[in-house]
Amino acid sequence: MQFDPPLIEARLRLRYKRFLADMEIGSEHITVHCPNPGSMMGLAEPGSRCWLGPKTGTKLPYGWELVETRSGAIVGIHTTRANAIVAEGMAAGRFPGLPSAKIQREVKVGKESRLDFRLEDEAGNPCWVEVKSVTLSRRAGMAEFPDAKTSRGARHLAELAALKRRGERAVLLFLVQRADCREMTIAADIDPFYASALTQVRAQGVEIMAFSCEISLAGIDVGPQIAFIHS
User: Fold this and answer.
1) Contacts of 207 (CB under 8 A, 6+ apart)
2) Residue 64, SS3?
3) Terminal C-alpha separation, the chain
4) 153 and 53 in a common domain
5) Residue 3 within a domain
6) Phi-psi region of 111 (alpha: psi -120 to 50; beta: other; left: phi over 0)
7) What distances in angstroms separate CA 63 from CA 80, 88, 133, 195, one per listed residue?
8) Number of folded domains in the chain?
9) How many CB atoms lie within 10 A of CB 97?
């Protein structure tokens, strides 16, 4: 996924009300959209170097895309970019373990919910994929999810498990929007219910995959698969 037009560098003054952030661009102070509903733990420190993309259709001129951590890692904070990054990766064959004969996005499951992808192999066998954007890292080399309690995430786990019981393949795919992590785990101290639910659905056959990203100021692409560690 390429950033077009190019991103603009800024400095974070304050992130607040979840979806707003005050930034400095040179001597100018502006308010921008923060497209991340999580806590952004470790990613929203005042003074952090950030990059913004032009935003249309709203009163806010820019959307926050990237931030540089204290360790120098560049992190993609735009959570809804994850599906586009994964879709491009699927089209480019970056997920060899997943079927790609047919790819559908945002497919309805039940009466009120949707999962991110419904794939099919050459024989027409379905494979459901739910994508979660990961930005948290509290230990060097280790990514964690979630960074805040997620009842929506727990609901998606239940939906994947129900599909697996129906005899269909079900995959939870964590996309780590940073390149400095070699492993991933669940932040059980932040959301113990989600951690327990994931353990249960994994035992029922829901597959777990985790991939890092290759990030630059030009764009974000799917990186190598990383180890998922969870008891």
Assistant:
1) 169, 170, 171, 172
2) strand
3) 33
4) no
5) no
6) alpha
7) 12, 21, 17, 31
8) 2
9) 9
Question: Could you tell me how many residues make up the chain?
Answer: 231
- The amino acid that residue 44 corresponds to is A
Hey, what's the torsion of the CAs at 130, 77, 66, 44, to 10 degrees? -160
Q: Encode pLDDT of 102-121 as tens digits.
A: 999 999 987 778 999 999 99
Residues above pLDDT 70, as percent of the chain: 100
C-alpha distances in angstroms, 113 versus 100, 120, 223?
A: 23, 20, 29
Residue 68 exposed, middle or buried by CB count within 10 Å (0-12, 13-18, 19+) = middle
pTM assigned to the model: 0.95
Cross-strand bridge partners of residue 114: 108
Here the CATH number for the domain that contains residue 154 is 3.40.1350.60
Residue 104 and residue 50 in one domain:
no
HSE, side-chain direction, 13 A CA sphere, residue 135: 27
